Amino acid sequence: MRSLDAPASTSTNDAGRRIRASLERIGQWVGMPRDLETIVEAAEPLHPSIRLMDQPYSHLFSLTSFPTALGDAVECDARARSTVPPDPLPLKYGEAFGMTFRFRTQSGDAPVLRLLWRKEDNTWRVTSYDVELP
Q: In angstroms, rounded to a whole number, what is the distance separating the alpha carbons of residues 102 and 79?
C-alpha cells in the first residue's frame, strides 16, 4: 500500500513502476542472494479467517484464501479510506487469494511482502500489496 501522503498511481504502468521500485528497495536491503531459500521464507497469515493453502513451496511462501469481504477491505483504495471489514465477517471464499513471504536479511530484521490476488477480466492479478517493515 502506498503511504497516505504519496500520490495515487496515474496508470497501470505507473503502479507497476512503483511496485518494482519497492521491491528493488527491499532487494538492496536484503543483499545479494545465492538462491531463493536464502532470501525468503513463508510468513503466516495475520487474520484468523484467512485459510492457509497446502502447496509444495510452503516453506518459501504462504498461499492463502481470503474471505471476499476481507479481500475487499485490504484493497489499497479501501485501506486509504480506512475501510474496515464487516463484523461479523462473512466467510465466503474463492474471490481473493494471498501470497506472503518474509525476506531474510543479514541484520535479522524481516520485512514481509503481502500480495492480494483477484481475478480481473479472466486474469489473476495482484490488486494490492503491502510491505511490512520491522
A: 22
Label residue 9 exposed, middle or buried (CB < 10 Å: 0-12, 13-18, 19+). middle
- Side-chain-side CA neighbours of residue 14 (13 Å): 7
| Other beta carbons less than 10 A from residue 20's beta carbon | 10
CA atoms within a 13 Å half-sphere pointing along the CA-CB vector of 3: 4
Q: Give 57-76 pLDDT, tens digit per residue.
A: 999 999 999 999 999 998 98
Q: E strands within 13-50?
A: 40-42
- Kindly list the domain boundaries of the chain, sorted by start residue: 12-132
Longest dimension (CA), the chain: 45
pTM summary value: 0.71
d(CA 99, CA 124): 12
Sequence letter at residue 52:
L
Amino acid at 98: G
